[in-house]
Design brief:
The complex is a heterodimer of chains A (172) and B (277). Chain A is mainly α and 172 residues long. Chain A is 68% helix and 0% strand. In chain A, helix 3 runs antiparallel to helix 4. Chain A is globular, with a radius of gyration of 16 Å. Chain A starts with a helix and ends in an 8-residue tail after the last helix. With 277 residues, chain B is an alpha+beta fold. Among the domains of chain B are: 31 residues; 78 residues, Beta Barrel (Thrombin, subunit H), CATH 2.40.10. Helices cover 29% and strands 27% of the residues of chain B. Chain B has five helices and twelve strands. Classes of the chains: A mainly alpha (172), B alpha+beta (277). Chains A and B meet through helix 3, helix 4 and helix 6 of A and helix 2 of B.
Chain lengths: 172, 277
């Protein structure tokens, strides 16, 4: 149990640092900016209580907001992401199948499930993010362009990180 | 009551979602408009310190560019020295000048956090109210205008850069002195701005300088950029033109905060007029 908490804490710190100090300055032709910090929320264990999940999503969002000077924006997107995560896991995973609280990683769940999971959650998170950010129809074309390209880059980064930390023996 | 409790418990995910989402949106809407959050922004204590550390690291990478621009500025300033002029009169008169009084004062500051690829961009600089910076002051660098101060803590200030949807400054064409207002282009390109609402009498040319007009926070004649295209949508009763900004916002290192000593007086006077109406 304490090992899970430690790993997640470490993951939170590392992802937030990478996001705000490295990826914040990274943009291709002003269009895509990627937000792979949501990987922290994706990889929280299955058994996590709903209230803790929402609180963590909220805190993660605020931490990113503090560095991006957009109070509440990422928090709102992350909370929606947490809600969709609960729905997605309820529909696709049976709770009885696991005994030692595994995490929804690429190595545990397999590529097909993990890919669908990542794509769904990333698209929803980014859509909400860009919808709230632009908030009107005048910049619609750019908002949609940013949304699609950013989602693409985020998904690629998350899948790469999944592949890097792939451990064959966990696969069932 | 029990049924209600069981109902809430069964759908707890949804209710928790509502609570947190509403909290996040309230924070967002409250801070989005003109008042900035006093806690959650990059000028506040811990995050300001972290950004300073990061900036010290990044500062080394930009040393070459900074050196170049300082050397150029040095050369320019040396050209203005008395010793570089030829004195052609033998006698000197000493005149105590009472005509001029210093109107603008500059406070130099270092940029410690910066962004150019968001729809609304802000800079954090390492000087604050203790060094005499106040809300509403203009910010320039040696190449042109940067933005205005919107939030001040004791050691840091947050600057709303020109690359921001709400930024709009008075500017004019350098040659025929036609007034307009400069703002960021819609397509989020950090090198392009739009000069709007220029009178139809103006005859702008591509490549003409656009400078500040002296009506807003900046002294007159600070460069903004060069006219790069005259064909922009919109306009109608007035001319709009695209401007290539002279400042490269992604490479900002040192900026000057402009303190207009007569600004308060002017504002008070103009405020009085509004009150009378």
């Amino acid at each position: 149990m304490s090992r899970i908490i430690l790993i997640n804490l470490l993951r939170f710190v590392v992802l937030v640092f990478i996001q705000v100090f490295l990826l914040k300055n990274l943009a291709l032709y002003n269009l895509p900016v990627c937000y792979p910090y949501i990987l922290f929320l994706l990889l929280l264990p299955f058994g996590i209580p709903n209230i803790l999940l929402f609180a963590l999503a909220f805190i993660t969002g605020l931490a990113i907001d503090a560095f991006y000077d957009t109070p509440g924006l990422h928090a709102a997107a992350c909370v929606i992401l947490a809600f969709v995560r609960i729905l997605f896991i309820n529909i696709t995973v049976s709770k009885e199948g696991f005994d030692n609280e595994p995490e929804p990683t690429l190595s545990v769940m397999g590529f097909r499930w993990f890919f669908a999971y990542t794509v769904t959650l990333t698209l929803i998170h980014h859509f909400v993010l860009f919808a709230i950010e632009s908030f009107n129809l005048s910049g619609l074309q750019y908002a949609i362009g940013r949304f699609l390209t950013s989602s693409f880059f985020t998904v690629i980064l998350i899948l790469i990180s999944g592949a890097i930390f792939f451990r064959r023996k966990e696969r069932k | 009551m029990r049924t209600l409790w069981r109902f809430i418990n069964r759908y707890n995910a949804f209710f928790l979602f509502l609570i947190f989402e509403i909290a996040a949106l309230i924070i967002y809407v409250k801070n989005n408009s003109y008042q900035r959050a006093e806690v959650i922004n990059s000028a506040s204590g811990l995050i300001g310190r972290l950004n300073t550390e990061k900036d010290q690291l990044y500062g080394y990478l930009a040393l070459k560019d900074v050196n170049d621009s300082l050397a150029r500025e040095n050369a320019h300033l040396r050209g203005l020295l008395k010793s570089s002029y030829y004195i052609d009169t033998a006698t000197k008169h000493k005149v105590t000048d009472t005509v001029y009084k210093q109107q603008y004062e500059y406070i130099i500051a270092r940029v410690i956090n910066n962004s150019v690829n968001q729809p609304n961009n802000y800079l954090t600089i390492n000087k604050g109210s203790e060094q005499g910076i106040a809300k509403g002051m203009g910010v320039i660098c040696n190449k042109g205008i940067v933005g205005k101060v919107i939030y001040v803590s004791s050691h840091f200030s947050l600057v709303q850069s020109l690359l921001h949807k709400d930024s709009q400054f008075s500017a004019m064409l350098a040659n025929d002195k036609e007034i307009g207002s400069i703002q960021w282009n819609d397509d989020l390109d950090p090198h392009k701005g739009i000069l709007k609402d220029v009178s139809n009498n103006a005859q702008p040319k591509v490549g003409e300088w656009v400078v500040t007009s002296g009506y807003s926070l900046f002294p007159e004649g600070v460069p903004v950029g060069k006219v790069s295209s005259l064909h922009t949508k919109g306009g109608g009763y007035s001319l709009n033109m695209e401007v290539t900004l002279s400042v490269d916002f992604s490479k900002l290192e040192y900026v000057n905060v402009v303190n207009n000593k007569f600004g308060k007086e002017q504002e008070a006077l103009e405020g009085q007029k509004k009150k009378d109406e």
